[in-house]
Amino acid sequence: xxxxxxxxxxxxxxxxxxxxxxxxxxxxxxxxxxxxxxxxxxxxxxxxxxxxxxxxxxxxxxxxxxxxxxxxxxxxxxxxxxxxxxxxxxxxxxxxxxxxxxxxxxxxxxxxxxxxxxxxxxxxxxxxxxxxxxxxxxxxxxxxxxxxxxxxxxxxxxxxxxxxxxxxxxxxxxxxxxxxxxxxxxxxxxxxxxxxxxxxxxxxxxxxxxxxxxxxxxxxxxxxxxxxxxxxxxxxxxxxxxxxxxxxxxxxxxxxxxxxxxxxxxxxxxxxxxxxxxxxxxxxxxxxxxxxxxxxxxxxxxxxxxxxxxxxxxxxxxxxxxxxxxxxxxxxxxxxxxxxx
Length: 341
Description:
The chain is mainly beta. It has a domain at 1-110. The chain contains four helices and 23 strands. Strands 9, 10, 13, 14 and 15 form a five-stranded antiparallel sheet that branches. A four-stranded antiparallel sheet has the order 1-2-3-4, covered by helices on one side. It has a four-stranded antiparallel sheet with strand order 5-6-7-8, with no helix packed on it. A hairpin with a 6-residue loop joins strand 3 and strand 4. The longest helix has 13 residues, at 5-17. Mean pLDDT is 89; it is low at 1-21 and 25-31.
């Protein structure tokens, strides 16, 4: 190990934890998993010390550019669990504040209302829902009541709609085919790609859009209703595959609309644009045969950019930045770029 590695790691954890903790929102004096104690008496980076180094992630700059919002994940070896809290800090490094301390992790945190509020995901109510609080952590309240777990969300630029994704049922269970065997635990496999890494493919993510008004999320609409495809795409299921247009009227998403043998062999995904007023969907990259991901609209709404690979079935193909003019449909590419995953 490089002799400079340990000081760098320690600097990370000290930066993350150099703030005053709050009381647990449930009423107890501390959260079940909180700031760890680190003992470097031996000078050796042991596995226990490595686990004690809290993980900093998902930094978000406030709209006025004066603060940074980020998450810190604490790990408890004794409890065999982790917990993620939210922290704010001025961009000059002053006034670090841990603004949450609860038994449930806070995720997907974003600034709202010109920086006056913060929206985030929490399972405090029993399922993963969208919550809102003041920027200092006060006035915490639930704003969604979706019948299931919300896995990730993006507010529209005008903050009048919420785009989120959630898992829906995929395929038949044994009990669906043999209702007289309700306790059967076997699986009926009739298609390829029945498993992703360490999970059975019994659900797939779908994007939903819902109105947001008077502090509550309204009825959600599945913008891929009836389609047996994923968006965002597995196995990463990343919010980068979803995007709002600057005028809050269109949604871009990446999806590989294939099943069975085609799904298992092909990398050909496409970028689709959904109009929330008409409900119509356009395939922006039809005829482009490689892996298309990460759509992003330009601030003026005239262009959309995305990452594209050229050849179908070639996972290690070069990644290119493509830009399309939404007015005339013209597409241009940059020289190949390398992205680190």
